[in-house]
Amino acid sequence: MDGDSTDQVLASRWDLPLVVFSMVRVAFGTLPLWAKALILGLFGSVVLWYGITWQRERGRRAR
């Protein structure tokens, strides 16, 4: 292999978020609105629960 050609392509830092966003958009694009709302509500509840738990643990460690 000579030094003029490259066999590797470097990814930018936005490639992974773009791929994840595209996959989510395609996966949920055909779902009815009630299913999208249910999934978003469940995901939001988990994130909120994790945030509250993390904040409580952080407060206990600070004392």
Q: What separation lies between the terminal Cα atoms?
A: 62 Å
By DSSP, the count of extended strands is: 0
Overall spatial form: flat
By DSSP (H or I, 4+ residues per run), the number of helices equals 2
Helix content percent band:
55-70%
**What structural category characterises the helix and strand content?**
mainly alpha
Rg over C-alpha atoms, rounded to the nearest angstrom: 21 Å
Q: pLDDT under 50 segments (min length 5)?
A: none
Could you spell the SSE succession in H and E letters? HH
| Biggest sheet overview | none
Mean pLDDT: 85
- Strand content is under 5%
Can you give a write-up of this model?
70% of the residues lie in helices and 0% in strands. The chain has 2 helices and no strands. The radius of gyration is 21 Å and the shape is flat. It has helices at residues 15-28, 33-62. The chain is mostly helical and 63 residues long. The model has no long low-confidence stretch (mean pLDDT 85).
Structure at a glance:
The chain has about 60 residues and is mostly helical. It has 2 helices and no strands.
Tag the structure with descriptive keywords.
63 residues; mainly alpha
Topology:
Elements: H1 15-28, H2 33-62
